[in-house]
Amino acid sequence: MIDSTVLLHRQRSMSPQPVARTGGVPIGDALEALIGRTRHTVCVALAETGEFADAVVRSLHCIPARAAVRILCTADATDASLARLDQLADRRVEVQVSESELRETLVVDGVAALVRGVEGTKGQTAIVNDPAAVRALELLFAGAWSRGRRLADHLRLSPRLRTELAHRILERLRAGNTDETAARELQVSLRTYRRYVAEIMRELDAHSRFQAGVRAVEVGLLTE
Q: Phi, psi at residue 70, to the nearest 5°?
């Protein structure tokens, strides 16, 4: 019984902690250690530019060329990171753009993950090894990925279509609101609203408001 207890204790001591804080370890070192274990897939969510994004791009050069990489960025992070993402041209990299708020996360092979600490945690990150928690993070990433738009579609969009006002107008076009109702809800004049609608239709190369709604879904400005 004593021998069995000692063996069980040793096995538990050798297994990784379900969640471990990186503490004073630089985020680049933590990323490299995790990405270095990659065999098949890496999923990354980038919410902004800076230390995390730079460390991710540097670390991705360490993964096997056969591994698939999915990078999901906010629009701001994408626009600022294109030059760095171009450095990964020799890798199997897919990039999509999300309109949702993203927590900076990295998932490797569906078995381990790194989650960037929120503001106020002194830059700490969490290394997650618990299978259920990693699976949940992977599913959250997959959901955000399915609602994102391809990088090529994002680059074709005029900056005017990426504004909050354009998004609110498209939502009202899809809802079938009258111009008068939509203008009142957006607190703009009817003439201004109709001018915005005409500009949006021109940018989307749409000949009707219905077609504008369809194109907005196709390029990821609206979810289905």
A: -120, 125
